[in-house]
Design brief:
The protein has eleven helices and seven strands. The chain is α+β, with helices and mostly antiparallel strands. Strands 2-1-3-7-6-5-4 form a seven-stranded mixed sheet. It starts with a strand and ends with a helix. The mean pLDDT is 82.
Length: 323
């Protein structure tokens, strides 16, 4: 059985005690209480136990057992099932995970999958404002989503800094050939973060308009604040994405320019070599009557003409930038 992260009972915003999972149904007999349970990658046995205690729908439990769910919000009777993609920045590397949240009028349960941050800090933050926590699981859901969204922006800032560094390398005298690969990796990570953040717009809009039994009217203002943060993240992602596309086009153009320079140089040297090739091929035809062969200075004259012609052509090609 997977380790239990935390299972706590609250009454009117105040923490009462930590309880065992099998005692949840007993704790919920008091109308003034709600339970906040946190799990990390639970196995089937533990999920079956939790399902019995909270009376969860089979389809939602089946999804919660597995990671790799798309971000979404689904309603099952009085309960909500929310899937959120998390990001964490560790030593300039982005790690992705998932958090599945079950929310009912009297409980909140988080199930973490993958490399995701724990919610101890979220719990401490919520417990520090009993008046808000007393409004119920809707406020807890807000603190969880807000905590997840707060980790998106540092990742965006890191990706933007990496882009700036690679962008500067584009205009060095001898740019690296690895620019395109780095831009591609940046684009891939950017799309992953954007894919985690963007669905929260629809999720928060639904929470703002519906589910009044879980999200009281007084708490909906908090979800508008989350929408503002998500909008900033997605706008930043769109802007960086456009800049990466432009930089990739510049990098491809530089590759083409370098190829053209090579072709021009080869063509220039080919033109220079054409001069002696033409002369030598002429004298290699072994005509019987070639008057200049009898002239004493014909050999040095031919060499001088070849060198002079090559030098003149080299100077001309150098002037127009072909060499």
């Amino acid at each position: 059985m997977a380790a239990r992260i935390n299972c706590t009972v609250y009454r009117k915003g105040v923490k009462l005690e930590e309880i065992r999972i099998e005692d949840i149904s007993v704790a919920l007999e008091d109308d003034d209480t709600f339970v906040w349970l946190g799990l990390f990658e639970p196995d089937k046995e533990l999920m079956d136990m939790v399902q019995d205690e909270f009376d969860l729908h089979d389809l939602a439990v089946e999804d919660a057992r597995k990671a790799h769910q798309r971000p979404k919000i689904e309603e099952y009777g009085e309960n909500l099932f929310v899937v959120l993609h998390t990001v964490s920045l560790v030593e300039q590397a982005i790690h992705f995970g998932e958090t599945h949240v079950f929310v009912g009028p009297r409980f909140v349960m988080t199930i973490r999958h993958g490399k995701s941050n724990g919610y101890r800090a979220v719990r401490e933050r919520a417990e520090s404002v009993p008046a808000k926590l007393a409004t119920g699981p809707g406020y807890v859901l807000y603190t969880i989503i807000d905590f997840i969204v707060d980790h998106y922006q540092p990742c965006m800032d890191m990706l933007q800094d990496r882009f700036r560094q690679v962008e500067k390398a584009l205009f060095l005298p001898n740019p690296s050939s690895d620019n395109l690969e780095e831009f591609y990796n940046l684009k891939n990570e950017l799309l992953s973060v954007h894919g985690a953040a963007a669905p929260l717009i629809d999720i928060c809009n639904e929470l703002l308009r519906f589910h009044g039994d879980i999200i009281p009217a007084g708490n909906r203002i908090y979800y508008r604040d989350i929408l503002d943060h998500v909008a900033r993240v997605t706008q930043t992602a769109d802007r960086i994405g456009e800049m990466i596309n432009a930089a990739m086009q510049v990098s491809l153009a530089q590759v083409t320019i370098r190829q053209n320079d090579v072709v021009k140089r080869l063509a220039g040297w080919g033109a220079i070599l054409a001069v002696p090739t033409m002369v030598f091929s002429l004298y290699g035809m072994n005509f019987q009557h070639m008057p200049e062969l009898a002239w004493r200075w014909s050999y040095p004259a031919v060499l001088f003409g070849i060198v002079g012609g090559c030098a003149l052509l080299h100077r001309r090609l150098k002037r127009i930038g072909w060499l």
